[in-house]
Amino acid sequence: MKSSQVASSLVERVGDVLQGKEEVVRLVVVALLARGHVLVEDVPGVGKTTLARALAASLGLSFRRLQFTSDLMPADVLGGNVFDRETGAFRFRKGPVFTQVLLADEINRTTPKTQSALLEAMDEKQVSIDGETHALDEPFFVLATQNPQDFYGTFPLPESQLDRFLVRLRIGYPPPEIERRVLETRRAADPVAELEPVVTAEALREAQAAVDGVKVDGAVLDYLHGIVLATREHALVEVGASTRAALAFARAVRAHALVDGRDYVLPDDVKALVLPVLSHRIRTRGGDGARADAEAVLREIREQAAVPV
């Protein structure tokens, strides 16, 4: 299966379940192909869990859902060494992070200590416990959620944690006509339970490798870099996008081109990903760095940037 077919098959199959949200599904597939992770900020009940489950089912990958709470400890995420009475020795018991698709539900409801337990796993695909390193299964993909409307009893994600997410997005309510159709047709059956894998794990790994081969013309790369530089020079930005953010941005636009069936990047790929890739990687002045402020600044930067012809 060609890499572009891997992407289109995933978008189509997951879109059968999360109807009316093709662009959201496309962004998630872009992050997956770019070996990144996704942070979904939205109210409950719009399909965050369904999205993660449908993606795992379409790939035939293992899936775990971890509900983050204030009393969750790092060992509850990563696992730990436990004493085995039969052997008289300690053995490592794997935590729920040892899966291929992890839904980290309401990640901002747990303490920074537990949040940071995911940093190594998300960045290096491994876990270190008591001086021993344990590799995670490949592919490894995290879809984390948080409710932007409910801040009681929450711990805002630090910038180091936010930077591990390639894409931040909203799902939003479905279009009224599609929601009406879902009310009529979906009853007791679970649509995700009926999904069959359309892409193998091996095909996915090949598609991820193909992202590295997508060509970026020098003028397009200058366009992307200019947007990154502008975030550091804008009067309303206190902290602009880092070099790591720029690398993530470049990787994401390559994956976006592949999802569109191309082996080369267009300026439109860059435009499409400015907000979802950079909005959580800058901090605005004179406030709490709210998402709306960051997105407004990025829209202005995007409009003012000279598009290569």
- Rg, Cα atoms, Å: 20 Å
Shape: globular
CATH superfamily of the largest domain: P-loop containing nucleotide triphosphate hydrolases
What's the end-to-end separation, in Å? 33 Å
Overall mean pLDDT score? 90
- Please mark out the parts with pLDDT under 50 across 5 or more consecutive residues, or reply none: none
CATH topology-level fold name of the largest domain: Rossmann fold
SS summary, helix count:
13
Task: Describe the structure in brief.
This protein has 309 residues and is an alpha/beta fold.
Describe what this molecule looks like in 3D:
The chain has two domains: 3-207, Rossmann fold, CATH 3.40.50; 212-304, Magnesium chelatase subunit I, C-Terminal domain (Helicase, Ruva Protein, domain 3), CATH 1.10.8.80. The longest helix is centred in the C-terminal third of the chain and has 17 residues, at 243-259. By secondary structure, it is an alpha/beta fold. The chain has helices at residues 3-17, 22-33, 48-59, 74-78, 112-115, 119-124, 159-162, 176-185, 201-211, 218-233, 243-259, 267-278, 291-304, and strands spanning 38-41, 63-67, 79-84, 89-94, 101-105, 126-129, 132-135, 141-146, 167-169, 237-239, 283-284. It has a five-stranded parallel beta sheet with strand order 2-5-8-1-9. A two-stranded antiparallel ribbon has the order 3-4. It contains 13 helices and eleven strands.
